[in-house]
Write a structure and sequence with these properties.
Layout: H1 7-10, H2 18-40, H3 44-55, E1 59-60, H4 61-68, H5 72-84, E2 88-92, E3 100-104, H6 106-110, H7 112-116, H8 121-124, H9 128-151
Antiparallel strand pairs: 1-3, 2-3
Length: 153
């Protein structure tokens, strides 16, 4: 076996994988948000759920799950916990009893005032235009992957 035939030389490194770069960046975001969210007693998933409700209050569980890319069986425990914390309420839609509507309480809306609108743009070290391009690129990547998976179903 020649040195160039080495299996290790031909194998890509973990750092060469785009999926690992995205995964590890997600972990870094989680660590950056953690101290602030810990102070409020929220997880990152609870945080983005509240942000989605700030964007559009009084949503169905289904539409909220689509927006967050979460299945109902994952989202429901999050909603129950946020309801127990007094940040949102769930109720059956009077027009369609099969639908459950989710809306923020006063306490849920007040989280904005407590600094839950935290923004870690500065921590990324990216200039505003670089940040916008990166965010759009990642959204495009996600949408392409989702579309690809739908085409193969």
């Amino acid at each position: 076996m020649k040195p160039t035939d080495s299996p290790a030389a031909a194998a890509p490194k973990l750092s060469d994988f785009l999926c690992f770069a995205v995964y590890s960046a997600n972990l870094a975001f989680g660590k950056a948000y953690k101290p602030i969210l810990d102070e409020l007693g929220l997880t990152y998933t609870q945080y983005i759920t509240i942000i989605a409700l700030w964007e559009q209050d009084n949503q169905t569980v289904g539409s909220l799950g689509e927006k967050l890319f979460l299945e109902s069986n994952t989202l429901t425990p999050i909603l129950k916990k946020l309801e127990a914390m007094g940040y949102l309420e769930r109720r059956r839609d009077a027009a369609d009893e099969r639908q459950v509507l989710v809306s923020l309480t006063k306490n849920g809306r007040r989280l904005r005032e407590k600094g839950l609108t935290m923004d870690l743009v500065e921590a990324t070290g990216l200039k505003p235009d670089e940040f916008a391009r990166m965010q759009k690129g990642i959204v495009s990547l996600r949408n392409n992957l989702v579309r690809s998976m739908e085409e193969h179903e």
